[in-house]
Amino acid sequence: MNNIFVYCETEGGKIADVSLELMTKGRELADTLGCELEAVVIGHNLANVEKELAEYGADRIWVADDAQLDPYRTLPHSAILCGLFKEEHPQIALMGATPIGRDLGPRVSSTLHSGLTADCTSLVIGGHKDNKTGKEYTDLLYQIRPAFGGNIIATIINPECRPQMATVREGVMKKEKAAKPGKGELKTIDWKKYVNDADFAVKIIERQMEERKINVKGAPIIIAGGYGMGSKEGFKQLFELADVIGGEVGASRAAVDAGFADHARQIGQTGVTVRPKLYIACGISGQIQHTAGMDGSSMIISINTDPDAPINKIADYAITGDVNDVIPKMIKYYKQNSK
Amino acid sequence: MSKPLKIVVLAKQVPDTRNVGKDAMKADGTVNRAALPAIFNPEDLNALEQALILKDMREGSTVQVLTMGPPRAADILRDAMFRGADGGILLTDRKFAGADTLATSYALSRALVKIQPDIIVAGRQAIDGDTAQVGPQVAEKLGIPQVTYAEEIVSLSDDNKEIIIKRRLDHGIEIVSSPLPLVVTVNGSAPECRPQHAKRVMKYKNARTPSELQEADNDYLNSLCACKEYLNIQEWSVADVDADDNQLGLAGSPTKVKQIENVVFQAKEAKRLTAADADINELMVELIASHTLG
Q1: Which of A184, A191, A226, A324 is most enclosed, with most CB atoms within 10 A?
Q2: Are A122 and B261 in contact (CB under 8 A)?
Q3: What is the pTM of this model?
Q4: Which residues, in sequence order, are bridge partners of residue A208?
Q5: pLDDT for A59-89, tens place per residue?
Q6: How many CA within 13 A on the CB side of residue A337?
Q7: Beta strand segments in chain B, E
Q8: Are residues A162 and A16 in the same domain?
Q9: Do both A21 and A93 map to the same domain?
Q10: Is residue A285 part of a domain?
Q11: What total number of domains does chain A contain?
């Protein structure tokens, strides 16, 4: 009882990366609190998911496996999760800040009247004293997130309501198998007692999911373009450089909105968060919304015609010049001098 | 003939956090909120457009915009009327202050119970919080389905019983059908809102809330609003929507802000280079030598 629960998303019966990242974080929090870590998987063709989740530290894995439950739909998944939470009383519930978690989380938090914090970038256990009532709390979940367009960092707590709920974006937490596997006890959810026919009123008529070919998050080197690249054609040289030095191409929101690059490449607060060993920012001014998603990079090179571009404040190397001039030179030098 | 629809758009007035310019930063590197203009939350404009498309589909339908906020939030209601909305409702009361998403959703849901719309359309999220929670929470409070991340309302059955919506997800699309009533939250990838229309601006420029009329204390405005019903922006308090005080504002918010830290832009010395061959070559030598490349 009063354990940490992670809602695990699946696609094709496989646990999503973001959920495994949360399991890793959940294990760490459970160890701090001295409680157990439990996973909830709702979907179809879920045979053996408990094995993988145990490797990520799950002590208990709750599974609801039925064709009607896959793909994800709001009402049945939220009914099952609420039903389970009412019986198990988790103290903390985590889910991905994905189109699924951000659809499900608020619905569940409203039903249970529990607080939910979206898009946390850090989760820490700590105490709190209410200055008004003088009441002291221990072992609360600090839900830390940027707000106000990334201009402030807020620490949110839910002193009274349980579970303390938080969503976290993909790539923000590290994914790592637990040092010691969890107990891995498999529990089947008797889900039909929580769900009624009306919960299936919304129907999925058609679904086209693209293979996730673009993997900006996992790339050790990222060459990112901004609005300053000028056009989709302008991005071609970034792909060429990425190809030569073995990197992936990213983009700022402005560039994605302008249609220069695919949304899957968007880096920043409303895209993916990355921390590669090298980040080359081309024609990116460096608004906080963008830098919030890449300022953890080991090395940052900026190429910008404006010597005062904000990106230069966090760059290790600031090249003042035209991308169209600089990139071909980098490609040329690398081709001539690398082994 | 199909029956007209009662459509409500949920909208929020937000500080324009996207354009944090040089003057918006104080000397200590923190945000000068006063320097940020208050705007119509961008995705709520996408939502308004979807609502107006629905209105165009069904003759006689109405679009009302509902917002919760301080008196000045009436500005976005007028903006919406200039673009095509039929009217606005401002939910305003000191008791609403300090609400988190759950308490906000409760307040909005009370107003919606009073309005009884067929469809509720909202932006996916507001740029000051980026939580995307209010839409789904309102749907839950009303006990109706939600369709989030909507990009397009594809069709509506003749009997107004089933709506087909295209959703834009991170890695694909989904087309879903839902019964009415429901809450639809609209993505920024949906079509932009139609601009203000000159004739509508002329018609609605004098639209006011009762508080605004009182403050202006202008006989001309008073008599205008008295004889033209459409110029009256409704203003509802806690009592008007029969809400439970315990579920409002700070008291009704399970989440509390423990701490706020301003993000300070730290000046870190960047190594300055030019686009000259020598500079680029030197950089590449360093990158290869440090095994950052290769």
Answers
A1: A226
A2: no
A3: 0.81
A4: B173
A5: 999 999 999 999 999 999 999 999 999 999 9
A6: 18
A7: 6-11, 13-15, 38-40, 62-68, 87-91, 119-123, 146-156, 162-169, 172-179, 182-186, 234-236, 256-262, 271-274
A8: yes
A9: yes
A10: yes
A11: 2
Residue A270 lies in a domain: yes
Q: Does A160 touch chain B (CB under 8 A)?
A: yes
Q: pLDDT, tens digit, for every residue of B176-211?
A: 999 999 999 999 989 999 999 999 999 999 999 999
- Residues in A closer than 8 angstroms to B255, CB to CB, are 115-117, 143, 156-158
CATH number of the domain enclosing A149:
3.40.50.620
Window 40-69 of A, Cβ < 8 Å to B:
none
Q: In which domain, by residue range, is A192 found?
A: 4-200
Residues A255/A226, Cβ–Cβ less than 8 Å = yes
Q: Characterise B34 by phi-psi region: left (phi > 0), alpha (psi -120 to 50), beta (else).
A: alpha
Q: Which residues pair with B67 in a beta bridge?
A: B11, B90
Residues 84-103 of B with CB under 8 A from A: 100-102
For residues B154-180, give the mean pLDDT: 94
**Contact between B151 and B118 (Cβ < 8 Å):** no
Instruction: Please tell me the predicted confidence (pLDDT) of residue A212.
Output: 65
DSSP string for residues in B250-263: TTT-S-EEEEEEEP
A11 is a domain residue: yes
Contact at 8 Å (CB) between B68 and B107? yes
How many helices (H) and strands (E) in chain B?
A: 8, 13
Put simply, whether B147 touches A (Cβ < 8 Å) is yes
Q: How many domains does chain B have?
A: 1
